[in-house]
Design goal:
disordered C terminus
Length: 153
């Protein structure tokens, strides 16, 4: 028997998953993207669109992954940009996760590209310390770890 098998199972999270209020999220968007009015407008639009489509966040979590990625009804390997309320709400869902502690499923997180989180102003607004991440990456390289996986050759 392994030590992992002996560890107690984590308690399920019984807190109800809720949306951030419009006022709170929009205040964060205004502060974070103050120098980019088009970004403010698009973040507000995507928030409103996601809440219109998914007013109860629990319903969104209950859906299969392809629905939550807006890939249902199409070939998941089809090239091109994904569109849809769930895909466009990715930054809002990341905000809920990092600011409100909303637990996102691993399959969802691993299926997304959250590169916008590493824009310094966005990272600071979400509490991400990019200098710390850089120093951890440097230390991992120093220890001989590879930080990227080579693609097919």
């Amino acid at each position: 028997m392994t030590a992992l098998a002996l560890a107690p199972a984590p308690e399920p999270d019984r807190r109800r998953r809720c949306h951030a209020t419009r006022e709170e999220y929009f205040a964060w968007v205004r502060a974070t993207f103050a120098d980019a009015p088009a970004s403010v407008k698009s973040h507000r639009y995507f928030y409103d669109r996601f809440l219109k489509h998914w007013p109860d966040l629990e319903d969104w979590f209950a859906e299969p992954l392809l629905v939550r990625l807006d890939l249902h009804g199409r070939d998941p390997h089809e090239p091109g940009k994904r569109i849809g309320p769930s895909h466009e709400a990715g930054p809002y869902l990341a905000y809920l996760s990092l600011v409100h502690g909303l637990r996102l499923n691993a399959d969802y997180v691993l299926s997304r590209n959250f590169d916008s989180l590493f824009v310094p102003k966005v990272a600071a607004g979400l509490g991400l310390d990019l200098d710390l991440l850089d120093s951890l990456s440097a230390r991992m390289l120093q220890l001989g770890m590879r930080l990227s996986v080579a693609g097919p050759s």
